[in-house]
């Protein structure tokens, strides 16, 4: 492990952390990893577990979320032709589960945060607190939308998650990409690091190698175009830039343009299947 850079928790605690680079896997890990990680989520500013619509940032987040919900189901529809059982691991406040159900999926969700589950319940979505509560059910699709980077005991959790996937099922993982232009541009201030909530920071190589160990192969990769703009906006705010919208738009646009050639978008969606199953 080599020191990659030092950064801090800009959104909740203000504490400093290091990112260590594993050259063999081409991924970063947050150091130290807090034993009580839950307290770093206990903030009104942590938007992933809220439905806030008060500030401009909140409203922008919610608008982009609605567009992304449609894009996510389109990606899944391209992979699933018969059975439509789906598990959303790390379901947050339940928006994707609700959207998937409305799109014809028999969808369930896992969310450890009691607060997030409560917000989901208000929308009529009942989420499980962990995998054990789903019984022995197996699913045709399992999704992790910006969740993998949060998981402690990464390899063990992957084993438990994929054990619930049908043999010919599809695993979909979306994560930030620390090899993107916006990540390199903002460095310490890049909001995609989101330490210490993000324990791991992945490259395309890292995702491929991690899931090879579990007999999975990448069959498709999709960009998350809006992430470059949203992450850049947060990064500019962390830098204290009052004209953050203008600068974030330029950086996000340039990051997406460069990624058309490098394929290193701000965030990427990986579609994975088991090695011994046909693609499609």
From TrEMBL:
Top-level taxon: Bacteria
Pfam families noted in UniProt: Methyltransf_23
UniProtKB keywords: Methyltransferase, Transferase
GO BP terms in the entry: methylation
CDD domains the UniProt entry points to: AdoMet_MTases (cd02440)
GO MF: methyltransferase activity
Name assigned to this protein: Methyltransferase domain-containing protein
Originating organism: Flagellimonas ochracea
């Amino acid at each position: 492990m080599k020191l990659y850079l030092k950064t801090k928790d800009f959104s909740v605690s203000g504490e400093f952390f290091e990112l260590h680079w594993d050259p063999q896997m081409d991924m970063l890990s947050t150091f130290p990893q807090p034993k009580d990680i839950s307290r770093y989520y206990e903030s009104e500013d942590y938007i992933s577990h809220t439905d806030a619509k008060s500030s401009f940032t909140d409203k922008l987040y919610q608008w982009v979320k609605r567009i992304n919900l449609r894009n996510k189901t389109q990606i899944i529809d391209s992979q699933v032709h018969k059975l439509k059982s789906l598990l959303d691991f790390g379901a947050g406040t339940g928006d994707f589960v609700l959207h998937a159900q409305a799109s014809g999926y028999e969808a369930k969700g896992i969310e450890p945060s009691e607060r997030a589950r409560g917000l989901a319940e208000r929308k009529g979505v009942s989420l499980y607190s962990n995998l054990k509560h789903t019984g022995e059910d197996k699913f045709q699709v399992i999704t992790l939308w910006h969740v993998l980077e949060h998981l402690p005991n990464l390899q063990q959790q992957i084993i438990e998650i994929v054990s619930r996937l049908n043999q010919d099922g599809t695993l979909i993982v979306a994560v930030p990409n620390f090899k993107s232009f916006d990540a390199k541009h903002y460095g310490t201030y890049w909001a995609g690091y989101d330490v210490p909530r993000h324990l791991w920071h992945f490259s395309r190589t890292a995702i491929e190698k991690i899931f090879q160990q579990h007999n999975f192969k990448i069959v498709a990769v999709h960009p998350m175009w809006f992430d470059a703009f949203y992450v850049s906006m947060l990064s500019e705010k962390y830098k204290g830039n009052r004209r953050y919208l203008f600068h974030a738009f330029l950086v996000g646009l340039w990051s997406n343009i460069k990624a058309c050639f490098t394929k290193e978008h701000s965030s990427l969606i990986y579609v994975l299947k088991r090695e011994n199953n046909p693609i499609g």
